[in-house]
Amino acid sequence: MAHAEFLLLDAWPHALPWSAATLACYVAGRLVHRRLQRWWSTPLLLAPALLIALALALHEPYAAYIGQTHWLVALLGPVTVAFALPLWEQRALIRRHWLLLGAGAIAGSAAAMLSVWLLATLLGLRGRLLLSLLPRSMSTPFAMTVSAAIGGRPDLTAVFVVITGVLGSALGDLLLLALPLRSRLARGALFGMGAHGAGVARAHGIGREEGSIAGLLMVLVGVLNVLLAPLLAHWF
Fold it and tell me: Is the pLDDT of residue 28 over 60?
């Protein structure tokens, strides 16, 4: 035990540069997004772009970066548990709309995975790449858990989740203009199912109830798919 603690303390200073850079890029992304309020200025897009530019400039490989920031990935576990809080806070909303929310979570998850499988098959994608794509329509902690369970690569899945969230949030506004979605439940569900975390942030910009619905559906989709992960692993 003492030897393991020594190794951890000895490795910690080496993890500081990229860990600090990651946090600094995220803070910078938030400041830029607060000022511009554009879909392309979201920290989910700006922070990785800044980190990639920095890594290329320093000629640092991905293995060096992930080796120094693995503790940030480890925090996804507690984050997943923390998602129980919005479920408890929105219990009245769940009781009122449990049937619609449940049906939306099931139908949305099935449509997302089926569309990925069909498009990937048409494009000739196979193996771990296809399995990594399947959970793209869940929030990152849930998606990485499901990806690992079905044989995908969680780190690659996280990239697909970010891309889905950014594009889904941008396209969500266009869909609101094109579709006759008058109820707050429908508008919130659109962003929560189609763009998870980024969609929840956008839904809160539209209205408080839309944001609550989006966040609730995002959590329900994640919990549902994590529970079904063994079945998905057997199927795929």
Answer: yes
Global pTM reads 0.79
Instruction: Please check the confidence at residue 100 and state whether its pLDDT lies above 70.
Output: yes
Instruction: Measure CA 154 to chain center.
Output: 11
Q: Measured at the alpha carbon of residue 118, what is the angle toward residues 220 and 48, in degrees to the nearest 5?
A: 60
Nearest to 113 by CA among 93, 137, 96: 137
Query: What separation, in Å, do the N-terminal and C-terminal C-alpha atoms of the chain show?
Result: 40
Kindly tell me if the per-residue pLDDT of 80 is higher than 70: no
Q: How far apart are CA 148 and CA 16, in angstroms?
A: 27
Contact 133, 116 (CB under 8 A): yes
One DSSP character per residue, the chain reads -HHHHHHHHHHHHHHHHHHHHHHHHHHHHHHHHHHH--GGG-HHHHHHHHHHHHHHHHT--HHHHHHHHHHHHHTHHHHHHHTHHHHHHTHHHHHHHHHHHHHHHHHHHHHHHHHHHHHHHHTT--HHHHHHHGGGGS-HHHHHHHHHHHT--HHHHHHHHHHHHHHHHHHHHHHHHHS---SHHHHHHHHHHHHHHHHHHHHHHH-HHHHHHHHHHHHHHHHHHHHTHHHHHHH-
Give the Cβ contact number of residue 173 at 10 Å: 14
